[in-house]
Amino acid sequence: MNRPRLITMLTVLGIAAFVLSLLIGPARIGPVASIEALIAGGNEAAMIIMREIRLPRALLAVLIGFSLGVAGAALQGLLRNPLAEPGIIGISASASLGAVLLFYTGLAGVSLLALPVGALTGAALCVLVLLVISAAQASTITLILAGVALASLAGALTSLVLNLSPNPYASYEIIFWLLGSLKDRTMDHVWLVIPLMALGWAALWASSRTLDALSLGEEGASGLGANIPRARVLVVCGVALCVGAATAVSGAIGFIGLIVPHLVRPLTNRLPSQLLLPAGLGGAALLTIADIVARTIIPERELNVGVVTALIGAPFFLWLVIRSRRELF
Hints:
By secondary structure, the protein is an all-alpha fold. The chain has helices at 3-23, 31-39, 44-79, 91-105, 114-135, 140-164, 168-178, 187-206, 208-214, 218-223, 228-250, 256-264, 272-296, 305-328. It has one domain: ABC transporter involved in vitamin B12 uptake, BtuC, CATH 1.10.3470.10. The protein has 14 helices and no strands.
């Protein structure tokens, strides 16, 4: 498919999902009244609902979905593995651990930004370890193994915290947060993640040319003069900023970075540099749609959006594994 046409289609789909997200909610507000409350003001109750509840939620769905989609596409290009996704290098699990520790110590309620700061700290520590490994001229396989080890360690420590938590309410909050949700977020969360995600996007785009060269293999890319260690650092930092910021405000939302690149790759020329923007736009649309489904599929009890993406992503991942196995044989 023509790339401008693909980008236009995904943009239109994302905008439509964004508008629909603004119009859907338990409070019955008509479309005209919703738009009027969002733009011009008017009814105070409607204005609060639109500007302080629905708008931040819809914006975060777009920002987080875009970040996860771009991060997944870049990581698959770096590792040259179609089954790679942002969680594989341990950043999501480490960010989750940072937030869980704040729940355990009771510090999560001190400030609105305490939880995001804790999650970002966990992601930063994970990145520090990965950067030390990358700076040592390690191979891509070593980077993957280090990420898997960090993810396993963070998961084990998270389970330990849950096991030791003396407060059932804290345990419930931890589990609920780990499921991933965009509920009850504010514009403060939006302003917190925008600069971090923008830096992540810039780092990933700066590595795109080298990712194209890596499609020929590390030896081929080196022969073309590509700076592979620099690209590795840029991708690790970019993924960390995107995924760490996303996890900091929404909890763990998986599979977006795995599914979307696979859905849009056949519609491009398959080069990573050409895949980044479509994957981001597709991720924004998919997460926004998943959040709408989470709110509407069981009206009397809202689902966590992380549950919806897992229900979609897990069968898709299994299908990819089976297809890859068939291609090998």
